[in-house]
Amino acid sequence: MFGKTFKNLTTSSLYFTPQMNFGANLKQLKIRMKAIGSIKKITKAMKMVAAAKMKSEVSRLEKGRNFALGSVSRVLENEPYVQKKKSTTTPKTTLLVPFTSDRGLCGSINSSVVRDIKRTVPLNRSSYGIFSIGEKGTIGLTRPFPDLLLQAITGIAIPINFPTAASIAHQIVNQSTSFDNIILIFNRFKNVISQQIIHQEVLNRAAFFNQFKYVTKHEAAEPDLEYSKNYFYELYVASSVYNALLNSSASEQASRMNAMENASKNAGEILNNLTLQYNRARQTKITMELIEIISGASAL
């Protein structure tokens, strides 16, 4: 019986050929390659857009920094009716003002600000309040600090201008009446690949008036005390907010450019690996077809 069975075996039947659906595998690889290629095009385009915006924001930052930190400081120092004094009191309550972006896909600059807030606020939460600038920071702070989030501003017009900063500063001033000082937390733009989170202290209205005492230099030319001191305080806060907004905007574009560059590189590496897999699968399919043809020819 066994002899008869072995006589019926052909040469081709001695080779076991696994049945693999190479066509479906190649089709899936082509779909993935097409998707990754589209993503790479998008990230590359976003990188170019971010690079152009970053150049504009850095130029605006360099010009605005001279006004926000230089000109205003000189005005306050040289004003003949202002005499600066050092504060001797320690603030008990603090209003934190974090600056983040409204859009994502810009690396870790927004999450870094949120983490910094979490490290800054101690267990004694009652001495802090949060005035959030930017949608991403507001979303990140809503869950851990629902009781401290007093107000949030999102959808800030781009490019940043001083009237926008003055409007935001006015709302911060109104919210800070029950706090001893204000701390602006934002990413300071150092260069294209480096941004640093800094804490900039801003005095509240009472502390500002206490540190900048008005004295009469000339009997016949005494300024309007109430108008002048309020004007100087609004200018002081608005210039600080303007500087923070400019730095945050430049840092956002630089971080987005770097993030999109890294995403494009990663997409390129994945695309190369998929291309290699596709070529191997295609070669294997051709080899299996040749084996079947040769096996069939040998059986004849």
From TrEMBL:
One of its GO terms (molecular function) is proton-transporting ATP synthase activity, rotational mechanism. It is a peripheral membrane protein. Belongs to the ATPase gamma chain family. Keywords: ATP synthesis, CF(1), Hydrogen ion transport, Ion transport, Membrane, Transport. It comes from Ichthyophthirius multifiliis. InterPro entries: ATP_synth_F1_ATPase_gsu, ATP_synth_F1_gsu, ATP_synth_F1_gsu_CS. This is ATP synthase subunit gamma. F-type ATPases have 2 components, CF(1) - the catalytic core - and CF(0) - the membrane proton channel. CF(1) and CF(0) have multiple subunits. Coiled coil: none annotated. One of its GO terms (cellular component) is proton-transporting ATP synthase complex. It is found in: Membrane. It holds the Pfam family ATP-synt.
